[in-house]
Amino acid sequence: MSSPAVGSRDLPHPASGEVRLEGLLHALSDPMRLRIVRELAGASGELSCSDFDLPVTKSTTTHHFRVLRESGVIRQVYRGTAKMNGLRRDDLDELFPGLLDALLDAAARQAARLGG
Amino acid sequence: MSSPAVGSRDLPHPASGEVRLEGLLHALSDPMRLRIVRELAGASGELSCSDFDLPVTKSTTTHHFRVLRESGVIRQVYRGTAKMNGLRRDDLDELFPGLLDALLDAAARQAARLGG
User: Fold this and answer.
1) What is the pTM of this model?
2) What is the full DSSP assignment across A84-108?
3) What are φ and ψ of residue A86, in 5° steps?
């Protein structure tokens, strides 16, 4: 009687074993999503969706975060009224050692080369 | 008079500086294309399209090779009547050091985990 039901505001995430490389690569194949992941990687903790100043509409931003969550790249949790986002670095590093760092390094190199 | 025109059968490839990380990740976000890249990485030299036994139609196979070529992942050249394929490993390693190996390792780990 005292155990709370799972809140309707809990967002679905794939378990670590359900994460697929192809889905992860698809999620990162979009420039906005790659940018979000770079910002999360450089942050000291979670960031709220409103911390990102992306040149797209709010609904498109929401879509991008959802793709990142559903592919297993980020974890999204409600804290009060804010949706907070964090990289699933531990899960990804265990599944695919070295991959996230190689992707972040590649993104940084490309940004430096193109002035992005 | 003696310099031959570029043959109409030469296939267009992006120059190294035109390769984009997002395009590369999109190219590798498909299971068939990831499989093609794994086979090319494990081959000692070029492979012809007909060396691949993929569970898709010939036209779909052609499409996948085209996506890989246009994103800068592979080089395709005609040798006689065969279209030969090779990874652009040197270009990719120079642009994004360590990325191709991390991707191949991740794909191998996933295949081992899922029995693929």
Assistant:
1) 0.90
2) EEEE-HHHHHHHSTTHHHHHHHHHH
3) -145, 145
Are residues B23 and A30, on separate chains, in Cβ contact within 8 Å?
no
Confirm if A103 and A40 have CB atoms less than 8 A apart: no
Higher pLDDT, residue B79 or A100? A100
- Chain-centre distance of CA A13, in angstroms? 11
Beta bridge partners of B74: B87
- For the beta carbon of residue B19, count every other beta carbon within 10 angstroms: 19
Distance (Å, whole) CA B92 – CA A75:
30
- Mark the ranges of chain B whose per-residue pLDDT is less than 70: 1-8, 116
Q: In chain B, which among 26-45 make CB contacts under 8 A with chain A?
A: 26, 28-31, 34
How much is the ipTM here? 0.89
Predicted local distance difference test score (pLDDT) of residue A93: 97
Residue type, A45: G
CATH fold of B16-107, please? Arc Repressor Mutant, subunit A (1.10.10)
Q: Where are the beta strands (DSSP E) in B1-116?
A: 47-48, 74-79, 82-87
B21 residue type, one letter = L
Q: How far, in Å, CA of A81 to CA of B36, rounded? A: 46
- Does A107 reach chain B within 8 Å, measured CB to CB? yes
The distance of B33 to chain A (nearest Cα, Å) reads 10
Query: Domain boundaries in chain A?
Result: 16-107
Q: What is the pLDDT of residue A1?
A: 41
